[in-house]
Design a protein that fits this description.
The complex is a heterodimer. Chain A is an alpha/beta fold. Helices cover 32% and strands 26% of the residues of chain A. In chain A, a hairpin with a 2-residue loop joins β4 (59-64) and β5 (67-69). Chain B is built from 13 helices and four strands. The longest helix of chain B has 27 residues, at 214-240. The interface between A and B is medium-sized, with 38 and 30 residues.
């Protein structure tokens, strides 16, 4: 058998509360295009970060051309023949095209310590030719379109080819998500050319594309590689099934406690739209309801959630709270109307980490604890203590800094904050991201408690499983639009495969 | 979802790039309308002369700001190097008379102080704001201590020539500033250090991933900035013919104002030493114009204060900033 250009053997990587990679083995042969697919959080990004030297694996090894290496940094990965094209681009807008392509590798253009711009531009022009880009190398990247910058990123990866002895592997992380159809076709043609010189790992949510371009496909789920198949024998439907895998656990999501929503509409969207993020969004949210929104990264659901919570403003359409049209200029307008957002970036946006538990809890409703301009510590403390016991928050005291609590307990503090503020609509953006299994169940329990009290919840779940298990109804979004709506009563839940079909 | 294309802000972007030049020209026209003396050769030389030291200081400060840091040690470095150089040339206090040999020594002291800024900032991981503020204060303190509050009088005509001498009618200080600009421009445009400081100022993470030695680059840039401040201190001593700790008063504010007014963004990554030269001339022309128009000195200070705020407000497209600190 041929020696793989790049191989990963039994690699594991853990973070507190999460096993990001669990005994992953993976290889790629010279001139091969390998697809890598999986749901959000399945472990694709972690695997890439190990290959790119951003993460060091806890166990297992990485081999390049059969030799074991420890990749210490992205630059080291690059010099070892592994080039990554990031989903979030790493092109610096203030530098020119040529300067970006050779950033950190200017040595070859030095003469008496000075960079020869003409030689660097000429070399860059060569690299640009490989990706059929006619951009001038001396142009500033800020003046280029997003798609052009993506191509420059690819050109940068390809520039390795003529400069190192080992074979080159290029990791393409969601390269097509920002490209137009014509550019995608071009990219695929380039990948076709590249197979002569390089091996390619192709990550995408668009399964048809993965099947079209790849020779082999790996499917990841829960940090493991669950399937390896030849692309020519596989179907999109098959891939869906492997991605989704396990069955629902009714108990886990407290389905028995799923409330029947009342007929009262608390929040309504009519043709809501925000340029470049989402369009034609219409739905009603009822008292006591959990409305799940499913979609991949880039589906626009995060943008929608932020817009509903007043963090951004819609460009068109109407938003109604309790039947009256509202316009949120900022998050505090939304809070005043009883709409709160539990953001996915808990430590950055959800909590003021150095603040105490009590201070965090009262942050959104501070006027309630103020008399004569002075905050009443006693009433703040009493209310906080009440919620600590109601939500069973494990904290030494209400004066403990919130940042020192575990992820699950931090999330409970965030939930308590909105309950104290008296919100009637709570938007949960990945409420269980990065917290351990036990705490997840606590959060699910709290969601059921809230709906039993008549609160309405919009849920952007961490996994599809979670969305299906918790929701009364589910909206599926793709490319900023609602592509499907499902009823999800206990016992009559849609399957993940049904949802995934409308997501990708 | 489609990310917003950056290219649609082009027109505005080009306007921003040229705004400092437009402002400078407008100021010149405006002032010459009010006062006929503005557009005379004598006044032109006066303008160049008063721009010389700020320009030298700005070369260093621009590098630091392009890197996304800030340097508040300028006054301290200028004070200490001015005092040291004035004690090393022929003077009324110390026995040394090194004449021009004192210049490289003083400049080197500036470079050492810059390196100290960089090393402390990187090794202790203290923000450049506080580190340089501290080093600057220490510099003024040491300069004051050396002289015990007195003033050194310089009596070395060769040394004074560095500022007062004229070549082709133009003061030496201006020629020296011009050379400083040329050196800074080459560093910025043609060396790896120059390239890297833009990369670091734009996005340090990306720069790090590209294999750029961030720490070493930062320390070296602080050191280079210190060399420019040291040269500034030498020029100040040569100009006034004396050395004392107060010689640097007000220079920090002028320098930072000029860099920012010239269009170099405090957030890093955008700008150029050439922008700062324009920025210095805006500040100097404005001051000169206000004097010609008979505006009181304290009102002039107020105008400078407003100028820097206006420049910061105009320099960046702030509509997309979420958090302003």
């Amino acid at each position: 058998m041929m020696q793989p250009v790049l191989e990963v053997r039994n690699v594991s990587k853990s973070f507190p509360g999460v096993k990001a990679l669990d005994n992953v083995s993976f290889h790629i042969n010279k001139g091969e295009v390998v697809g890598l697919i999986g749901e959000n959080g399945a472990g694709k990004s972690s695997l890439l970060k190990v290959l790119n030297g951003i993460y060091q694996p806890d166990e297992g090894k990485v081999l390049v051309d059969g030799r074991e290496i420890i990749i210490t940094s992205p630059r080291h990965a690059f010099d070892s023949g592994i080039a990554m094209v990031f989903q979030e681009q790493s092109i610096l807008p203030t530098l020119t095209v040529a300067e970006n392509i050779f950033l950190g590798r200017e040595e070859e253009f030095l003469r008496f310590g000075l960079i020869s711009k003409s030689r660097m531009n000429a070399a860059a022009a060569e690299e640009l030719k490989k990706v059929h880009l006619s951009t001038h190398p001396a142009m500033r990247c800020a003046d280029l379109s997003f798609a052009d910058r993506q191509m420059i990123e690819i050109a940068k990866a390809l520039s390795l080819d003529s400069r190192i002895k080992t074979d080159v592997t290029i990791l393409l992380d969601e390269p097509t998500s920002v490209l137009e159809q014509k550019e995608i076709e071009l990219l695929f043609r380039i990948i076709g050319d590249l197979k002569q010189r390089a091996s390619i790992v192709f990550i995408s949510h668009r399964l048809e594309e993965v099947l079209e371009i790849s020779d082999r496909v790996y499917v990841m789920r829960d940090g493991q590689i669950v399937q390896e198949l030849a692309a020519k024998d596989a179907t999109v439907k098959e891939l869906h099934q492997h991605m989704v895998g396990r069955q629902l656990h009714h108990e886990y999501y407290r389905e028995a406690r799923q409330a029947t929503p009342s007929a009262k509409t608390v929040l309504e969207c009519v043709d809501l739209n925000r340029d470049g993020a989402f369009s034609n969004i219409s739905f009603e949210l009822h008292e006591g309801e959990v409305l799940g929104i499913a979609g991949v990264i880039g589906s626009g659901r995060e943008d929608l959630a932020r817009c509903l919570a007043g963090h951004t403003s819609p460009d068109g359409g109407n938003l109604l709270v309790n039947g009256t049209a509202v316009h949120f200029g900022a998050a505090y307008d939304a809070t005043a109307k009883g709409v709160g957002l539990v953001p996915s970036e808990r430590k950055v946006e959800g909590l003021v980490a150095p603040f105490s538990v009590a201070e965090n809890m009262t942050l959104a409703a501070l006027p309630k604890f103020v008399s004569g301009g002075i905050i009443s510590f006693s009433s703040e403390k009493a209310v906080a203590a009440d919620w600590v016991s109601r939500l069973k928050i494990k904290t030494p005291s209400t004066a403990t800094s919130a940042g020192s609590l575990s992820g699950g307990n931090q999330q409970k503090v965030v939930l308590a904050k909105w309950r104290i503020a008296g919100v009637r609509v709570l938007i949960l953006d990945h409420p269980t991201r990065g917290i351990d299994v036990g705490s997840k169940e606590d959060v699910y329990e709290l969601v059921r408690d809230m709906t039993a009290e008549g609160l309405a919840v919009i849920l952007l779940g961490d996994t599809l499983d979670e969305v299906i298990g918790l929701s009364n109804r589910i909206l599926v979004m793709r490319d900023g639009e609602i592509t499907a709506r499902f009823e999800a009563p206990p016992g009559g839940k849609p399957t993940q495969v049904e949802l995934v079909r409308h997501m990708v | 979802m489609k990310p917003v294309s950056v290219s649609n802000g082009n027109l505005l972007g080009h306007w921003r790039r040229w705004a400092p030049v437009v402002v400078l020209l407008a100021l010149c026209i405006l002032i010459s309308l009010f006062n006929g003396n503005f557009l005379t050769f004598g006044n032109f030389i006066r303008l160049l002369n008063s721009a010389a030291i700020p320009i030298v200081l700005c070369m260093g400060a621009t590098f630091i700001i392009l890197m996304g840091s800030i340097d508040l040690s300028i006054e301290g470095v200028v004070a200490l190097t001015a005092v040291i150089v004035s004690l090393l040339v022929l003077n009324d206090i110390s026995p040394y008379a090194l004449s021009l040999w004192a210049v490289p020594i003083a400049v080197a002291v500036g470079g050492m102080m810059g390196l100290l800024n960089g090393v402390l900032h990187i090794k202790l991981k203290t923000p450049s704001f506080m580190t340089t503020l501290g080093v600057g204060f220490a510099g003024v303190g040491v300069a004051t201590t050396i002289l015990g509050g007195t003033t050194v009088r310089i009596s070395d005509p060769t040394f004074r020539f560095l500022s007062l001498g004229r070549v082709l009618e133009i003061p030496m200080a201006v020629w020296i500033a011009a050379v400083a600009v040329a050196v800074a421009y080459v560093i910025q445009e043609r060396t790896r250090l120059g390239r890297w400081l833009y990369a670091i100022g734009t996005d340090e993470m990306t720069a790090r991933h590209a294999g750029i030695p961030i720490e070493r680059t930062r320390i070296l840039i602080f050191g280079i900035a210190g060399l420019f401040y040291g040269l500034g201190g030498v020029l100040a001593a040569a100009q006034f013919g004396q050395g004392h700790a107060l010689i640097s008063q007000g220079r920090l504010f002028t320098t930072i104002t000029a860099v920012v007014v010239g269009g170099t963004a405090l957030s890093g990554g955008v700008g150029s030493v050439i922008n700062s030269v324009i920025g210095v001339f805006i500040v100097v022309v404005l001051a000169n114009g206000l004097v010609l128009m008979g505006v009181e000195p304290y009102v002039q200070q107020g105008v400078q204060g407003l100028l820097i705020i206006a420049a910061v407000a105009l320099a960046l497209d702030r509509s997309r900033l979420d958090v302003v600190k």
